[in-house]
Every structure is written in C-alpha cells, then in structure tokens.
C-alpha cells in the first residue's frame, strides 16, 4: 500500500508513457456454459424430485456442484493469477504489481524478436534427435524464470513472455495475446 505523500520508486520516470493502457481478461464463455448447464441440470432434477424428495434434490445439487467446481477451477485460476492490466505505468498480473519502468528495454526488444509458438514448433521439428537431446539438456540446466502472478505454471492456451527487470531478475508473464501485450509494453516503455 502506498502511504499519502510517499512516491513509488519508478513513479516519476520520464521514459515511461503513463497514458498507455492494456487490459486482458480471461474468456468467460466456458464459465457461462458450465453455469447454464448446472442450472439446467438442477431445474431438471427439481422437476423430477420436488416436492417429494427435497433431501435427494439437495444431495444431487451438492454433488453436481462439486463437479461444477472441478470444471471451473482452471478459469477461476486464470482469472485470479493471469488477469493483466497495464495502466498508469504499472503492470498488474494477477495479484502482483510491477512498475513498467523496472522492465529493461533490451529484454522487451529481445522478446519482440523471439519466434512465436509456431516458430518454435518448426525449429524443434528441424532438429535431429541428438540436437534435440542436447537442447533439452541445456534448457534443463538453466534456472527457470519466475512466473509473475503467483501461479505454478503457464496454463494451456496461454503463451509466455519473458522479460527482465532492471535488478536482473527474469520474469515470465502468461498471456493470451503475446503480441498485444508486447506492443503495449514497448509503447509504454518507449522502445
């Protein structure tokens, strides 16, 4: 929490465009489909069981809600840990906040030149088995950058964007629109 009269370390940095905004919310279609299906199932069971078997209907709804919770765990996790907002020179990923001025322009430029998922697939397919084993050995020897937001891993359907801070820490940001986030960060950072 910021105290009144106290400035954040990167707040008045001249090389950050504070007017750049970017917002990335996880899709809600799966959540809506699951909730509508659950409501339909509960209504169907109510027509079959109520008013005679209230206890049976409550048990069926409770057991079905456990299945619903399992189906909604990933969307809820993405919403909690991977929601991205860029506003006022601050990048918020899930619960974590990063000043845009702390991101190095060199790492943003390097991320812009990295191949996307399709390019990596093509590169991997072009390697011989020996080259692939050597590449895996080298990548396993490296330490993995920290995932921003607090989750364990990058979820399926999301890409990762690797950036570095001025302090030298490597960070991974899980995003659904890698190019859009990278454009916003480079515009905000003035790269």
TrEMBL record:
- State which residue ranges cross the membrane: 56-76
UniProt KW Transmembrane helix keyword: yes
Could you tell me the keywords of this UniProt record?
Answer: Membrane, Transmembrane, Transmembrane helix
Q: Which domain of life is it from?
A: Bacteria
Q: What is this protein called?
A: DUF3093 domain-containing protein
Question: What organism is recorded for this protein?
Answer: Streptomyces diastaticus subsp. diastaticus
């Amino acid at each position: 929490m910021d105290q009144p009269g106290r400035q954040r370390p990167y707040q008045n940095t001249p090389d950050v465009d504070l007017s750049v905004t970017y917002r990335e919310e996880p899709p809600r279609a799966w959540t809506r489909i699951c909730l509508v299906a659950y409501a339909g199932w509960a209504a169907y069971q109510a027509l079959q069981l109520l008013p005679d078997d209230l206890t049976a209907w409550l048990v069926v709804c409770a057991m079905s809600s456990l299945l619903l919770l399992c189906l909604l765990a990933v969307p809820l996790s993405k919403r909690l840990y991977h929601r991205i907002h860029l506003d006022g020179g601050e990048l918020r990923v899930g619960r974590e906040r990063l000043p845009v001025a702390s991101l190095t322009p060199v790492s943003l430029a390097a991320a812009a030149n990295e191949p996307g998922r399709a390019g990596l697939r093509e590169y991997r397919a072009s390697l011989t088995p020996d080259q692939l084993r050597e590449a895996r050995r080298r990548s396993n020897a490296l330490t993995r950058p920290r995932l921003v937001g607090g989750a364990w891993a990058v979820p399926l359907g999301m890409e990762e964007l690797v950036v570095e801070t001025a302090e030298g820490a490597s960070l991974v940001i899980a995003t659904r629109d890698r190019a859009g986030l990278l454009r916003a960060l480079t515009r905000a950072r003035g790269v």
